[in-house]
Amino acid sequence: MAVPWIPYVAQEFLDSILTPDMRVFEWGSGGSTVYFAERVASVVTVEHEHGELQPDLENVTALFIPPEDGELGTDPAKPEHYYSESYPGKNFRRYASAIDDFEPFDLVFVDGRARPSCLRHAKAKVKPGGWLVLDNSDRAYYLEHFDVSGWGERCFFGPGPYNDYPWQATFWRKAGATS
Protein backbone atom coordinates (compact mmCIF):
# COMPACT_ATOMS: atom_id res chain seq x y z
CA MET A 1 0.00 0.00 0.00
CA ALA A 2 1.42 3.40 -0.99
CA VAL A 3 0.85 5.23 2.29
CA PRO A 4 3.22 6.38 5.00
CA TRP A 5 2.91 4.33 8.17
CA ILE A 6 1.86 7.29 10.34
CA PRO A 7 -1.43 8.17 12.05
CA TYR A 8 -4.20 9.00 9.60
CA VAL A 9 -4.50 12.56 10.95
CA ALA A 10 -0.76 13.04 10.36
CA GLN A 11 -1.12 11.78 6.79
CA GLU A 12 -3.92 14.28 6.18
CA PHE A 13 -1.62 17.07 7.32
CA LEU A 14 1.23 15.68 5.23
CA ASP A 15 -1.08 15.68 2.19
CA SER A 16 -1.75 19.38 2.79
CA ILE A 17 1.92 20.46 2.90
CA LEU A 18 3.45 18.44 0.06
CA THR A 19 3.96 20.18 -3.27
CA PRO A 20 5.17 18.83 -6.63
CA ASP A 21 8.45 20.79 -6.46
CA MET A 22 9.59 19.42 -3.08
CA ARG A 23 12.66 17.33 -2.37
CA VAL A 24 12.19 14.68 0.34
CA PHE A 25 14.65 12.56 2.33
CA GLU A 26 13.42 9.58 4.33
CA TRP A 27 14.87 6.94 6.59
CA GLY A 28 12.81 3.78 6.25
CA SER A 29 11.77 2.77 2.74
CA GLY A 30 8.37 1.27 2.03
CA GLY A 31 4.87 2.50 1.29
CA SER A 32 5.96 6.03 2.19
CA THR A 33 8.54 5.96 -0.60
CA VAL A 34 5.89 5.30 -3.24
CA TYR A 35 3.56 7.82 -1.58
CA PHE A 36 6.21 10.56 -1.73
CA ALA A 37 7.32 9.61 -5.27
CA GLU A 38 3.76 10.18 -6.49
CA ARG A 39 3.60 13.67 -4.96
CA VAL A 40 7.02 15.37 -5.00
CA ALA A 41 9.88 16.09 -7.42
CA SER A 42 12.44 13.76 -5.85
CA VAL A 43 12.95 11.36 -2.97
CA VAL A 44 16.09 9.99 -1.37
CA THR A 45 15.32 6.94 0.76
CA VAL A 46 17.67 5.05 3.06
CA GLU A 47 16.93 1.48 4.11
CA HIS A 48 18.88 -1.03 6.20
CA GLU A 49 17.07 -4.14 4.87
CA HIS A 50 17.60 -4.78 1.18
CA GLY A 51 14.20 -6.46 0.77
CA GLU A 52 12.40 -3.30 1.94
CA LEU A 53 13.76 -1.08 -0.85
CA GLN A 54 11.05 -0.15 -3.30
CA PRO A 55 11.24 -1.12 -6.98
CA ASP A 56 12.86 1.38 -9.29
CA LEU A 57 10.95 4.63 -9.32
CA GLU A 58 12.04 7.38 -11.70
CA ASN A 59 12.36 10.15 -9.11
CA VAL A 60 13.71 8.03 -6.22
CA THR A 61 17.31 7.52 -5.17
CA ALA A 62 17.34 4.39 -2.99
CA LEU A 63 20.29 3.78 -0.69
CA PHE A 64 20.82 0.40 0.95
CA ILE A 65 22.96 0.94 4.05
CA PRO A 66 23.02 -2.01 6.45
CA PRO A 67 24.25 -1.64 10.02
CA GLU A 68 27.95 -2.06 10.62
CA ASP A 69 29.64 -4.39 13.07
CA GLY A 70 30.64 -2.91 16.42
CA GLU A 71 28.63 -1.06 19.00
CA LEU A 72 29.39 2.60 19.70
CA GLY A 73 27.27 2.43 22.85
CA THR A 74 24.04 0.73 23.84
CA ASP A 75 21.77 3.60 24.84
CA PRO A 76 19.22 4.02 22.02
CA ALA A 77 18.39 7.55 23.27
CA LYS A 78 21.94 8.84 22.74
CA PRO A 79 22.44 10.00 19.15
CA GLU A 80 26.18 9.37 19.32
CA HIS A 81 25.57 5.65 19.96
CA TYR A 82 23.83 5.04 16.59
CA TYR A 83 22.13 2.13 18.30
CA SER A 84 19.01 0.10 17.65
CA GLU A 85 17.99 -2.48 20.26
CA SER A 86 16.97 -4.87 17.47
CA TYR A 87 20.58 -5.05 16.27
CA PRO A 88 22.91 -5.69 19.24
CA GLY A 89 26.58 -5.61 18.32
CA LYS A 90 25.90 -3.30 15.36
CA ASN A 91 25.80 0.45 14.74
CA PHE A 92 23.89 2.67 12.32
CA ARG A 93 26.43 5.48 11.91
CA ARG A 94 26.68 5.26 8.10
CA TYR A 95 22.90 4.85 7.83
CA ALA A 96 22.07 7.89 9.99
CA SER A 97 24.75 10.09 8.44
CA ALA A 98 23.79 9.33 4.82
CA ILE A 99 21.90 12.64 4.66
CA ASP A 100 25.16 14.53 5.23
CA ASP A 101 26.11 13.99 1.57
CA PHE A 102 23.13 15.98 0.27
CA GLU A 103 21.95 19.57 0.03
CA PRO A 104 19.11 20.50 2.40
CA PHE A 105 15.63 19.11 1.75
CA ASP A 106 12.11 20.54 1.91
CA LEU A 107 11.00 17.63 4.09
CA VAL A 108 12.94 15.04 6.08
CA PHE A 109 10.98 12.00 7.27
CA VAL A 110 12.41 9.93 10.14
CA ASP A 111 10.78 6.49 10.27
CA GLY A 112 13.68 4.05 10.34
CA ARG A 113 16.30 2.71 12.74
CA ALA A 114 18.38 4.68 15.30
CA ARG A 115 15.95 7.60 15.15
CA PRO A 116 17.70 9.84 17.70
CA SER A 117 20.85 9.54 15.56
CA CYS A 118 18.90 10.29 12.39
CA LEU A 119 17.34 13.35 14.04
CA ARG A 120 20.82 14.60 14.95
CA HIS A 121 21.86 14.56 11.29
CA ALA A 122 18.49 15.68 9.91
CA LYS A 123 18.22 18.97 11.74
CA ALA A 124 20.87 20.75 9.65
CA LYS A 125 19.53 19.27 6.41
CA VAL A 126 16.07 20.87 6.52
CA LYS A 127 15.73 24.01 4.40
CA PRO A 128 14.47 27.19 6.06
CA GLY A 129 10.69 26.89 6.01
CA GLY A 130 11.00 23.13 5.54
CA TRP A 131 9.67 20.26 7.62
CA LEU A 132 11.15 17.56 9.85
CA VAL A 133 8.81 14.66 10.63
CA LEU A 134 9.29 11.99 13.31
CA ASP A 135 7.02 9.00 13.46
CA ASN A 136 6.40 7.37 16.86
CA SER A 137 7.33 10.61 18.60
CA ASP A 138 5.35 9.42 21.63
CA ARG A 139 8.41 7.28 22.47
CA ALA A 140 10.03 9.76 24.86
CA TYR A 141 13.57 8.45 24.45
CA TYR A 142 13.58 9.50 20.77
CA LEU A 143 13.47 13.13 21.88
CA GLU A 144 15.51 12.93 25.08
CA HIS A 145 18.57 14.62 23.49
CA PHE A 146 16.82 16.58 20.73
CA ASP A 147 16.28 20.34 20.76
CA VAL A 148 14.24 22.15 18.14
CA SER A 149 13.87 25.45 19.95
CA GLY A 150 12.52 28.06 17.57
CA TRP A 151 10.87 25.51 15.26
CA GLY A 152 7.08 25.33 14.96
CA GLU A 153 5.60 22.06 16.16
CA ARG A 154 2.48 20.07 15.23
CA CYS A 155 1.72 16.73 16.93
CA PHE A 156 -0.79 14.21 15.61
CA PHE A 157 -2.02 11.28 17.68
CA GLY A 158 -4.43 8.60 16.55
CA PRO A 159 -4.88 5.32 14.72
CA GLY A 160 -3.19 4.58 11.44
CA PRO A 161 -2.55 1.82 8.91
CA TYR A 162 -1.46 -1.67 9.99
CA ASN A 163 -1.68 -1.11 13.78
CA ASP A 164 -4.60 -1.67 16.13
CA TYR A 165 -3.44 1.03 18.55
CA PRO A 166 -2.97 4.81 18.26
CA TRP A 167 0.43 6.51 18.15
CA GLN A 168 1.95 9.93 17.50
CA ALA A 169 3.86 11.65 14.71
CA THR A 170 5.36 15.12 15.14
CA PHE A 171 6.07 17.71 12.45
CA TRP A 172 8.52 20.54 13.10
CA ARG A 173 8.80 23.51 10.73
CA LYS A 174 12.14 25.23 10.52
CA ALA A 175 12.00 29.01 10.80
CA GLY A 176 12.74 31.04 7.68
CA ALA A 177 11.44 31.61 4.21
CA THR A 178 10.54 28.72 1.95
CA SER A 179 12.57 28.39 -1.20
Give descriptors for this structure.
alpha/beta; Rossmann fold; two-stranded antiparallel ribbon; 28% strand; 7-stranded mixed sheet; 4 helices
Radius of gyration: 15 Å
Strand content: 25-35%
How many distinct helices? Answer: 4
Q: What is the fourth-level CATH superfamily?
A: Vaccinia Virus protein VP39
By CATH, the topology is Rossmann fold
CATH architecture level-2 label? 3-Layer(aba) Sandwich
Query: How many β strands by DSSP?
Result: 9
What does this structure look like?
- This protein has 179 residues and is an alpha/beta fold.
- It is 16% helix and 28% strand.
- The protein has 4 helices and 9 strands, in the order H-E-H-E-E-E-E-H-E-H-E-E-E.
- The strands form 2 sheets. It has a 7-stranded mixed beta sheet, sandwiched between helices. Strands 4-5 form a two-stranded antiparallel sheet.
- Helix 4 links the parallel strand 6 and strand 7 (126-135).
- The radius of gyration is 15 Å and the shape is globular.
- The protein starts with 7 loop residues before the first helix and ends in a 6-residue tail after the last strand.
- The model has no long low-confidence stretch (mean pLDDT 95).
Topology, element by element:
Layout: H1 8-17, E1 23-27, H2 31-37, E2 42-47, E3 60-64, E4 68-69, E5 90-91, H3 93-96, E6 105-110, H4 115-122, E7 126-135, E8 152-158, E9 167-173
Parallel strand pairs: 1-2, 1-6, 2-3, 6-7
Antiparallel strand pairs: 4-5, 7-9, 8-9
